User: What shape does this take?
Amino acid sequence: MKTFEGKVAVITGAASGIGRGLTERCLAEGMHVVMADIEEDVLNKTADALRAEGNNSIVTVKTDVSVLAEIENLKQVALDSFGAVHLLFNNAGVGGGGNAWDATQKDWEWVIGVNLWSVIHGVRVFTPQMISQGDECHIVNTASVAGLVGGSTNACYSVTKHGVVALTENLYRDLATAQHNIGTSVLCPGFINTNIMDSGRNRPDHLQEAAADEPVTPEQEKMRKLMADFLEKGMQPGELADIVFKGIRAERLYILTHEDFNEIIMSRAENITTGNNPPVTNFAGQ
Assistant: This one.
């Protein structure tokens, strides 16, 4: 896609963070926007604030992206409101989870549901609609640089983000093979100034765990503070949105935000091809 004026965007996780940044950019491009989020109050307040700044059309849809029926409803609301969907951001995500054996069944179900199943649902629901339209369209799936490097964050998060990268790569190939006029990108951000560390505020009741008896260890507290500091100093969502739209216009499959991680990505590829074990470090090199 090169032009966006008058076209329709659907954005999940649109009420805050990256989703809000993408929403603001879509509106600046002259698009109609369908904003989806599970936080209904925040979603409505965000939409009201954006409506007050301009005349672009905005529709809000409270959506649990892990539920197929709610993604199907999101598509129907978009079609009922604007008649088409040209740009889809499967963006909603959470950061919860634990290590490979301590994460509970509910941890895995929550993180996989929001971070991976939501993207699968979005691809399966919206791609046929875009194909039927015959218009130039584009799909952006939000992963993370954690989907390109190995074992750098908690297991649940890493697994889902690697899954989103693989899904998008397959979607890109499948659409190109079928010669459909639909572009595809996987967004792999580094540190962005969002409230992802507070993801638990949106965790469904049926996937909540009883309060843990064990206190947070000094090492865990240190890592949480380190991550919070990185995020606070991270790229602003508006700057990320600029990078994303440049990537869409360039028909780029991989959209990265921070060159700082290129060495780690290349190191992982080299370890795979040479059979070397990776160093045991995390995102922050600790």
Q: What stands out?
A: The chain has one domain: 8-199+210-274. Residues 216 and 222 are 10 Å apart (CA to CA). The two ends are 40 Å apart (CA to CA). The domain at 8-199+210-274 is CATH 3.40.50.720 (Rossmann fold).
